[in-house]
Amino acid sequence: MKKIGIAVTVLLLAGLVLASESFAQPPMGGRTGRANPGARIYDVNTVQTVAGEILTIETATNAKTRGGYGVGIHLLVKVDKDTLSVHLGPAQFMARQGVKLEVKDRIEVRGSRVTLAGKPTIIAAELKKGDKTARLRDEKGFPLWGGGARRR
Fold it and tell me: What angle do CA 142, 145, 151 make, to 5 degrees?
């Protein structure tokens, strides 16, 4: 009888340890580490506004397609003498913003200027074309297409 009590206690303790480890992990697709390495590239200290002409519009497929948000929109924009890659957000989210983009459009982008794969890149928080504006991220850089419960 004593051995059964010890076995039950060991099993309960093992269950508690495993449960506490799972609660310590970031949510799937969360904001840290390997789950979503690109999520925290946005740096509020490097936010700037640039204006230029769209050279190309590309879609990029994320390997972890969830909720239809696996296809992202990326632009190549001529800004003065530079060419910048601009990462907007999921195609489905962009479609709901009501800003139709075409090559040769003049746009203004506010976002975090970073270096990705050795190239200057803007992670967009806001995009303007004429009198239309698409809001993509909040003031802390968290995507507006993400779940509200995950935003901090």
Answer: 40
Q: Which two tokens stand for residue 133?
A: 């504006």
**Residues of the chain whose pLDDT is less than 70?**
1-40, 62-69, 147-152
Asked if 77 contacts 105 with a C-beta cutoff of 8 angstroms, the reply is no
Confidence at residue 146, expressed as pLDDT on a 0 to 100 scale: 76
Structural element, H or E, at residue 8: helix 2-24
Bridge-based pairing of strands 82-90 and 119-129 is: parallel
How many helices (H) does the chain have, and how many strands (E)?
2, 6
- Supply φ then ψ for residue 151, to 5 degrees: -70, 145
